[in-house]
Amino acid sequence: MSRVGLRLSGVACVRGGRLLFRGVDLAMEPGGSALLKGPNGIGKSSLIRICAGLLRASAGMVERHGRVALTDERLALDMEQPLRAALDFWARLDRATAQALDAALEAMALEPLAQVPVRMLSTGQRKRAALARVIASGAPIWLLDEPGNGLDDAALGLLGDAVAGHLARGGIVVAASHQPLPLVTPVVMAMQDHVAAEEGE
Amino acid sequence: MTVLLTLAARDLRQAWQSAGLWLPVAFLLLVASLYPFAVGPDAALLRRTGGGMLWIAALLASLLPVDRLVAPDRERGVLDQIALRDIGEEMVVLARLIAHWLGFGPALMIATLPAAALLKLDGATIALLELGLLIGTPALAALGLLVATLTAGLRSSGALSGLLALPLAVPLLIFGAGTLGDGSGAAFKFLGAASLLLVAITPFAGGAAIRAGRE
């Protein structure tokens, strides 16, 4: 992890002809975490996708140093494959070791389900599988879009532990959530503050 | 290179599991067995027209798996997750092209043998047909994949795929079926040229289509 960082300055996002937000500044250093808050549809997911480089910012600058791992509402795991094999495909693209994958499965308490086909998993288990992919990737920047959705209290605890461990190792976490997350001292960004004023300017 | 192999192996496995592999084969055999019912059991007529008819069947069979080539992975976020790993869309499409051809080209060529027997084609024609398909199926695979990247995410993409692909397939059909009656080998060269062109542009055009469709 050499020179890890994520910097947004003056980022705006237009979707479908509508200005979602503007003037978003965010500077993340190693060990830093940010929590994006706000009601549905305010642009949290779009901002996460802009951070990931999957969506272009309509204005402003995005600087990213270091690999990115993302989890959003889409699982992106092959349904017919056993869980471990499905995750192994991504681990190989990430050049992650088998040990890293096993450690990630353990961190999300998924070892008992390693041989179960993905389609048999429950909502919460699938979410944990997506988080295990993020953990196994070894990427320094984690972008978590609603990571707590569908997780029970025990799984939320596991998520908190994984995030804390990642931050302690000098990683960066940006999470979007409408519910409280077990993040330690994050930069909280209320997206409402960046919604364009309808009148005025 | 390992990335390419990893992607292609996964695509091939997906095609196998979604039962997309036997569909073009079954389609080709079905058409070949229906054709004599339609034109009558005149062996001479079947022999004269059967080769060209098998080319049309191969072309239509190549369109069958189009709707599962790109759209499901786009919707399930697989393409986005691959993009996050700094793997170019061109690489994704190239891997998919290799997997798609492997899953469909050889199977179609094998299915052509019983189909040719049903149409009473002679040995020389079968040999020409198989050689033509060997050169032409990569182009059919590329064309199907290209159309799949262009229509992924659209409603009623299935019908649109046919409308988009069939006009583009006209050169393949002309030169492919042309190889059967042409002794000079010129049709093979044109077929090879058309095939190379489609295979060469598909990764770039398809990659650009996937990027443009990411919204």
Short description:
The complex is a heterodimer of chains A (201) and B (215). Chain A has helices at 44-52, 83-93, 98-107, 123-137, 153-168; strands at residues 5-15, 18-28, 33-37, 59-65, 68-71, 141-145, 172-176, 187-190. Chain A is α/β, with parallel strands linked by helices and 201 residues long.
Would you kindly provide a written description of the structure presented here, covering whatever features stand out?
The complex is a heterodimer of chains A (201) and B (215). With 201 residues, chain A is an alpha/beta fold. Chain A is 30% helix and 26% strand. Chain A has helices at 44-52, 83-93, 98-107, 123-137, 153-168, and strands spanning 5-15, 18-28, 33-37, 59-65, 68-71, 141-145, 172-176, 187-190. In chain A, the strands form 2 sheets. Chain A has a 5-stranded parallel β-sheet, sandwiched between helices. In chain A, strands 2-1-4 form a 3-stranded antiparallel β-sheet, with helices on one face. In chain A, β1 and β2 form a beta hairpin. In chain A, α2 (83-93) runs parallel beside α4 and α3 (98-107) packs across α4 (123-137). In chain B, 82% of the residues lie in helices and 0% in strands. The two termini of chain B are 29 Å apart. Chain B has helices spanning 2-17, 22-39, 43-63, 71-75, 78-84, 89-118, 123-151, 157-168, 170-181, 186-212. The radius of gyration of chain B is 18 Å and the shape is elongated. Chain B has one domain. The mean pLDDT of chain B is 90. Classes of the chains: A alpha/beta (201), B mainly alpha (215). The interface between A and B is medium-sized, with 20 and 22 residues.
Keywords:
heterodimer, A: 201 residues, alpha/beta, 5 helices, B: 215 residues, mainly alpha, 10 helices
Shape of chain A: globular
Mean pLDDT of chain B: 90
SS element count, helices of chain B: 10
Instruction: Please tell me how large the radius of gyration of chain A is.
Output: 17 Å
Largest interface (C-beta under 8 Å):
A-B, 20 and 22 residues
- Give the terminus-to-terminus CA distance of chain B: 29 Å
